[in-house]
Every structure is written in structure tokens, then in C-alpha cells.
């Protein structure tokens, strides 16, 4: 555990979780804005299976790049509608600075959630994402929704998901290396809550 806040994120945070504290942080890079949005409802969370592009084969909230002349909130609402077919009154809950070794830009990811939505969650209609519900409670009886598929998600999401679930605002940083086969390996991470 390191209570030292990493470079590139705001000061005045309360330590929540960190890992690989003995590794160096990657050099800071200019940022590019992204969003990720989650629906949290009745002890379940809606995630999407990414069918193509960056993060292919993994589950994540719904999101993508913030386009020019859009606010991050507008982008998050648009991406949720494009990828899950629903409209939701999203609330901001976190910021994640995500840096991959060798990349040109750091991802500044605004993280959102909503507890209600309008419309019907799309089944498997887009080429981008396949929405699926997962249980937020750790113990699942037979016939319940599947547990969150941590092994098919960005490796450090498991450390901030409890904060999202409890709707506690947070800020964090996650650095990743790439191995010879192009897989992303978590290098160092730190998450803190906003006081
Ligand atoms: N949960 C989580 N999401 C992450 C991490 N790193 C990371 O880039 N993301 C998200 C941010 C973006 O929503 C998404 C990457 O953007 P993307 O590849 O989907 O964007 P895109 O260019 O396809 O987007 P677009 O065409 O839909 O605008 O992955 C991470 O560590 N955890």
C-alpha cells in the first residue's frame, strides 16, 4: 500500500487501493478524453462485451472518445445510447487516468453511472457491444445473474468497482505494459476517494 498520490491526478484524495507500488509510474503524456458509463440497478450492473476495437473480448461499461464540441457527459450519454440503446440521467462518479507504455496519449476517462434508464436494453444488435447484466452481490445462488467477469475486464477495475457500487466518488491512475503478444499487463495502480 502506498498512500502517496501518483503524478497526474488530483491531490487531496483519501487512499483506497493500490498495487505494484515498487514499480515506476510511466512518464505522463498529453491526455485524450474518454467516457465509461454503467447502469446500476437492483443489485445488478449492466456491462457490454466489446466485440471489436480497443479492449476487444473484454467487458466494460459503455463509452468511447469524447468528440470535438461535446462535453464528456454528452459523450457518455451518446455512447450509452449507441452501444446499449438506452437513455439515462448519468451522474459523474470517477476519473481514471489510464496510461499504456509506448502510447502517445494518456486516456482521461470520466466514469458515470445511472440507476434508471429509458428504453429497452438492446440485445446483440450492434457490431460494437453486447450488453449483459451481472450480479453486484458477491454470493450468487443458482439461477441468479452471473458474477462480474473480472478475468475478462481491465485488470485494475476490480479495485475501483466497490467505489462505483457504493457510489463513492473516486480518482485513480492505472498504468499498463504491453507484453510481446500485445496483451496489456497491469504495471502499477492507485485509487483514492474524494474527501
Ligand atoms: N473500465 C475501464 N475502461 C477503460 C480502461 N482503459 C480504457 O481505455 N477504458 C475505456 C475507455 C473507453 O471507454 C474505452 C476505449 O475507448 P474505445 O476504444 O471504445 O473508443 P473508440 O475509439 O472505440 O470509441 P468510439 O469509436 O466509440 O468513440 O475503454 C480501464 O482500465 N478500465
UniProtKB/TrEMBL annotation:
Chief site of localization: nucleus
Cell location: Nucleus
Cofactor(s) annotated in UniProt: Mg(2+)
Catalytic reactions of this protein: 8-oxo-dATP + H2O = 8-oxo-dAMP + diphosphate + H(+); O(6)-methyl-dGTP + H2O = O(6)-methyl-dGMP + diphosphate + H(+); N(6)-methyl-ATP + H2O = N(6)-methyl-AMP + diphosphate + H(+); 8-oxo-dGTP + H2O = 8-oxo-dGMP + diphosphate + H(+)
Source domain of life: Eukaryota
GO biological process: DNA protection
EC code: 3.6.1.56
Pfam families: NUDIX (PF00293)
Gene3D superfamilies named in the record: Nucleoside Triphosphate Pyrophosphohydrolase (3.90.79.10)
Signal peptide: none
Gene Ontology molecular function: 8-oxo-7,8-dihydroguanosine triphosphate pyrophosphatase activity; dATP diphosphatase activity; metal ion binding
Family named by the database record: Belongs to the Nudix hydrolase family.
Stated role: Oxidized purine nucleoside triphosphate hydrolase which is a prominent sanitizer of the oxidized nucleotide pool. Catalyzes the hydrolysis of 2-oxo-dATP (2-hydroxy-dATP) into 2-oxo-dAMP. Also has a significant hydrolase activity toward 2-oxo-ATP, 8-oxo-dGTP and 8-oxo-dATP. Through the hydrolysis of oxidized purine nucleoside triphosphates, prevents their incorporation into DNA and the subsequent transversions A:T to C:G and G:C to T:A. Also catalyzes the hydrolysis of methylated purine nucleoside triphosphate preventing their integration into DNA.
Subunit and interaction comment: Monomer.
Protein name stated in the entry: Oxidized purine nucleoside triphosphate hydrolase
Organism: Agaricus bisporus var. burnettii (strain JB137-S8 / ATCC MYA-4627 / FGSC 10392) (White button mushroom)
